[in-house]
């Protein structure tokens, strides 16, 4: 059976977007009905390029818009203007964005003004606090208001959209594409992040980069790592430090040259997933890691006061600890000392899908476009 050819634009700007859209892109590329292009804004240039290389993706268009000390406003204004110009000349049949970044918001807005349908991957996540995370919570709410298709990762996310009055016919529970990505990454049983890190000790992996944790909050997080190191003899604390200068300055000031605390450069996706898989415990303010760690049954202490991924809390594989020094160190030390408590956090099932999310998304997009033309 012959099908029409549909033009698809997939837009990314950060590493998490690449990770969660890579298998979507490859699935669409494998379907003859789709003429698919990848557009990169360059929001996080170095980390973005690392991830593109891991998945073997070469963007059709690279806006290369990254600036020193750029603000979300810089990203949104430049990206939306550039994309509007591109799509005004040759309009795609649909634009696909993921998550809640400035790039995703800018792409959705440009497409919306051109009356091009928007498909939102990982739709419906809500913390219901406009400042946590900032500005991502607002971005995803505004993308929802402009999207024609909403691909919710879980029933909880879909229910958030239902309660907001979004047309139920446009909402599809597809799982999270991060599981698709994890299943495409081979395991390296000989992995070591650094020759100086002992494989005989338990690895505690840390990431912290969110804007709401910059300053005093990040200082508290760093000081809690010293407490953990001082109280637990058999741990190696591994901290791949985000490239943001605000993060680099604070982390290096407090943690550089500390015994059994290893500050590493930002890692590519393949190696970072090996690190997650081999970790005993993870402390993070990342949203994506809250989704990735459960697939490896690694407990997570979430360095935030709220999470838009309550599924990982509900299944018992993560706990919210915020940025309070004492609360973080106490929770981590308890888990490292109490094998029973630790075991309880490793026995749940990942709530984020079966690894076929990209196939479900492609099917629903094809159905939407084929019926739209009738």
Kindly summarize this structure in a few lines:
The protein is an alpha/beta fold and 374 residues long.
Features:
374 residues, alpha/beta, Rossmann fold, 2 domains, seven-stranded parallel beta sheet, six-stranded parallel beta sheet, 15 helices, globular
How would you describe this structure to a colleague?
The structure is a single chain. The longest helix has 18 residues, at 72-89. 45% of the residues lie in helices and 16% in strands. The strands form two sheets. The protein has a seven-stranded parallel β-sheet with strand order 3-2-1-4-5-6-7, sandwiched between helices. The protein folds into two domains: 6-176 and 354-372, Rossmann fold (3-Layer(aba) Sandwich); 202-344, Rossmann fold (3-Layer(aba) Sandwich). The protein has 374 residues and is an alpha/beta fold. It is globular, with a radius of gyration of 21 Å. It is built from 15 helices and 13 strands.
**How big a fraction of the residues is strand?**
15-25%
Order of helices and strands: EHEHEHEHEHEHEHEHEHEHEHEHEHHH
Give average pLDDT, whole number.
Answer: 92
| Terminal CA distance | 17 Å
Name the poorly predicted regions. none
Number of helices: 15
- Beta strands, count: 13
Query: Structural class from helices and strands?
Result: alpha/beta
Helix fraction bin: 40-55%
Globular, elongated, flat, extended or rod-shaped: what is the shape?
A: globular
CATH homology group of the largest domain? Glycogen Phosphorylase B
Computed CA radius of gyration, to the nearest angstrom: 21 Å
Q: Summarize the main sheet.
A: 7 strands, parallel
Number of domains: 2
CATH class of the largest domain: Alpha Beta
Query: What spatial order of strands do you see in the largest sheet?
Result: 3-2-1-4-5-6-7
CATH architecture of the largest domain: 3-Layer(aba) Sandwich
Q: Within the CATH hierarchy, at the fold level, what is the topology of the largest domain?
A: Rossmann fold
């Amino acid at each position: 059976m012959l099908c029409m050819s549909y033009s698809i634009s997939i837009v990314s700007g950060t590493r998490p977007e690449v990770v969660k859209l890579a298998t979507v892109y490859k699935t669409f590329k494998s379907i003859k009905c789709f003429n698919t292009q990848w557009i990169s804004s360059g929001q996080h240039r170095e980390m973005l390029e690392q991830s593109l290389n891991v998945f073997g993706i070469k963007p059709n268009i690279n806006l290369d818009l990254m600036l020193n000390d750029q603000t979300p406003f810089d990203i949104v204004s430049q990206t939306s203007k550039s994309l509007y110009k591109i799509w005004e000349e040759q309009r795609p049949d649909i634009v696909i964005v993921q998550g809640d970044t400035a790039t995703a918001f800018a792409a959705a807005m440009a497409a919306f003004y051109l009356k091009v349908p928007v498909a939102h991957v990982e739709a419906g996540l809500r913390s219901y606090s406009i400042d946590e995370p900032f500005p991502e919570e607002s971005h995803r709410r505004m993308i929802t208001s402009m999207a024609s298709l909403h691909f919710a990762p879980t029933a909880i996310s879909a229910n958030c959209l239902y309660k907001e009055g979004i047309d139920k016919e446009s909402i599809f529970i597809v799982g999270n594409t991060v599981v698709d990505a994890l299943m495409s990454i081979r395991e390296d049983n000989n992995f070591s992040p650094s020759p100086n890190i002992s494989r005989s000790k338990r690895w505690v992996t840390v990431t912290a980069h969110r804007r709401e944790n910059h300053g005093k909050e990040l200082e508290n997080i760093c000081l809690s790592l010293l407490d953990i190191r001082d109280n637990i003899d058999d741990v190696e604390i591994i901290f791949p430090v985000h490239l943001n200068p605000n993060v680099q300055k604070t982390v290096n000031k407090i943690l550089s040259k500390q015994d059994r605390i290893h500050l590493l450069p930002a890692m590519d996706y393949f190696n970072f997933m090996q690190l997650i898989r081999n970790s005993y415990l993870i402390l993070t303010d990342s949203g994506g890691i809250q989704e990735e760690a459960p697939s490896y049954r690694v407990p997570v202490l979430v360095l935030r006061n709220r999470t838009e991924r309550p599924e990982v809390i509900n299944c018992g594989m993560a706990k919210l600890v915020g940025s309070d020094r004492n609360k973080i160190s106490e929770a981590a030390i308890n888990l490292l000392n109490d094998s029973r408590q630790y075991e309880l956090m490793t026995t749940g099932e990942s709530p984020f899908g079966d690894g076929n999310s990209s196939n479900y998304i492609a099917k629903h997009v094809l159905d939407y476009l084929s019926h739209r033309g009738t």
